[in-house]
């Protein structure tokens, strides 16, 4: 059997971005089965992928011993190809007919385009999601037909978080578009605490955060007409799911990490990229782009990049 080892990021956002090249590889090699290496937070991205026969979760250990663990898990297989998006040396030590090693280092341009170019694709492979039928059915039950507004008020560090009261003001303004808020956030007490001010100020909003797999979250996001959220893995997941997505950027780099999708947009706080405080981003600017996305969505055929 043709087997391909695909090593992607430990971080959720970068792992979501890499799903485009994984999908492109699966189309290029239709007889291949894939082993995906990723961090614990990203593992759920690949669980419903029928071409993924194994997921190796790589947890960091002292003295980089996690790479030794990975080598031991992979060294007995004769790989058709090793694709290493982490730029490590492990691909050179495994038996493989072909190796693609994407080296690190910051380069100009969007990360999704950089990966496509590194693997030789002329057209940028767009991120996608894999969703099981069970997850899809459960999402329909949780979010029946309606105009659901997905809010992503959390991020992996506080400097990227738009003030909670502005999420609330935005949601209230979008009620005029018949949108009802749904709040998403990741697992753990820290994520819950960051989402709490929005949940308290919007008692009518649905709380769908904290305890769901990534496939479940992706299925729920597909039920929403718009996602508005901070630069985060959740933002990238929404865009990959085909949900119209508006990413909010302050000190992070939209030029590299803007959401990728047909109806994916971003708004930046005023100031130099990489240094602009996100609290400089006003509600009016976000609301303007959100309404533009909604108008564009109303004339577009739905796009769902998933199985």
From TrEMBL:
Gene3D superfamilies: Glycogen Phosphorylase B. One of its GO terms (cellular component) is cytosol. Coiled coil: none annotated. This is Lipopolysaccharide heptosyltransferase. The keyword Amino-acid biosynthesis does not apply. InterPro entries: Glyco_trans_9, LPS_LOS_Heptosyltrfase. SUPFAM superfamilies: UDP-Glycosyltransferase/glycogen phosphorylase. GO terms for biological process: lipopolysaccharide core region biosynthetic process. One of its GO terms (molecular function) is ADP-heptose-lipopolysaccharide heptosyltransferase activity. Keywords: Glycosyltransferase, Transferase. It comes from Gluconobacter oxydans (strain 621H). CDD domains: GT9_LPS_heptosyltransferase.
């Amino acid at each position: 059997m043709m087997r391909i080892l695909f090593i992607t990021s430990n971080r959720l956002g970068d792992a979501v971005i890499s799903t485009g090249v994984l999908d492109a590889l699966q189309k290029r090699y239709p007889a291949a089965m894939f082993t995906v290496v990723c961090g614990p937070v990203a593992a759920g991205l690949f669980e419903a992928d029928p071409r993924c026969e194994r997921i190796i979760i790589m947890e960091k250990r002292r003295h980089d011993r996690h790479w030794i663990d990975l080598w031991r898990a992979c060294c007995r297989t004769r790989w058709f190809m090793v694709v290493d998006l982490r730029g490590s040396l492990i691909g050179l030590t495994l038996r493989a007919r072909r190796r693609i090693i994407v080296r690190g280092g910051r380069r100009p341009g969007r990360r999704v385009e950089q990966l496509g170019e590194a693997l030789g694709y002329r057209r940028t492979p767009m991120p996608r999601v894999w969703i099981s039928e069970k997850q899809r059915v459960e999402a329909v039950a949780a979010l029946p037909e309606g105009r659901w507004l997905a809010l992503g008020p959390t991020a992996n560090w506080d400097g990227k978080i738009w003030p909670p009261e502005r999420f609330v003001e935005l949601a209230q303004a979008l009620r005029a578009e018949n949108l009802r808020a749904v709040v998403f956030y990741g697992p753990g007490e820290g994520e819950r605490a960051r989402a709490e001010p929005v949940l308290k100020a919007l008692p009518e909003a649905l709380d769908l955060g904290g305890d769901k797999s990534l496939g479940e979250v992706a299925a729920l996001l597909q039920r929403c007409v718009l996602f508005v959220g901070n630069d985060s893995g959740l933002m990238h997941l929404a865009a990959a799911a085909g949900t119209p997505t508006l990413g909010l950027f302050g000190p992070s780099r939209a030029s590299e990490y803007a959401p990728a999708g047909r109806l994916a947009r971003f708004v930046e706080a005023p100031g130099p990229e990489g240094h602009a405080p996100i609290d400089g981003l006003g509600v009016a600017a976000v609301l303007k782009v959100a309404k533009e996305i909604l108008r564009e969505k109303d004339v577009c055929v739905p796009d769902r990049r998933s199985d």
